[in-house]
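Sanity check

After download, print the first record. It should look like this:
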Amino acid sequence: MELYCKEIENFIISTNYKDNTKKRYKEKLVHFGEFLSEVTEQNYADLHLEKIYELIDINGKTVRYLPLNAVLIDQFLFSRTTLGYSWISVCHAALKSFFKYLLRNYNFNNVMLETEFKLKLYTPLRVPPRILNRHEIIRFLRSIVKHSKNIKRDLLLFILLLSTGARKNEILNITVDKIDFANDLVFLQETKNNRSHYLILRDGIGKFIQKYCVENQLSQSDKLFYDLTYNSVNDLLNSYLTFANLPNVNVHSTRHSFATIMFESGSLITTIQQLLNHIALSSTRSYIEPNYIRNLNIHVPENEEVYKAINLRCKPYLQL
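Expected structure tokens:
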């Protein structure tokens, strides 16, 4: 094994994490090294995990060295809990991954398995996000019809978010060449969990998008929403919510609305899991609003007015 600072670099190079994750992990591992340097009174550049403790005989001569143990890991983690759960959880993950790397490459004892620190004890209570129900979604769409300066783009944007359960970045990164207009599919090459995925569109939306692309003269490599950014989507959402006198929600809540409405409509949770591209079923369960049955058998006459208004404003697109 090499010096600690060198092993951090080796570890980062050997991983397949995204660049942002690599950067955060390296920051936390350097921070841990600085802690070790302080408590052991060694220079950071000279730290070696197999030589953390020095045993000295009565004559002051070094007998041997002892490696890092779980005691210092616990001391470090417990002393950093005031930095907040987000910070400590990333640090904990970085250390777990790093010591797995050391075990795999040098058979160095994975001291993370011996720590007393329990991350779950510091997990903040999760408050379910506020989402829009069916009636509120109709009011929201009606707000777009009434107030949008680019109705075709804005309706398409939010209909895609609400009807596919896709993440905001996935929608904003759609390029024309990834859209199967005839079969109502969109291929996502990269997703949050590093798995490719198909978005399944509502029947006929593919042809709607095709006409939109033609009208905006988009090439195959162009993004579908070439004129929107993360912040502008947030601004549009907040604007239409305000016009509709609806409570504040974030863009990601559209993903929760999709899951909840699918579930209340009778879809299997495993089907919803696949549509959301979740690896764990528990993640999908957390997306379903616990009061989903509130929408069952509710008929809202106002909905028909919205459908009629959308049809009139977007007639060229809806003549498929």
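If your output differs, re-run the checksum step. Summary of this record's structure: Residues 19-40 form the longest helix (22 residues).
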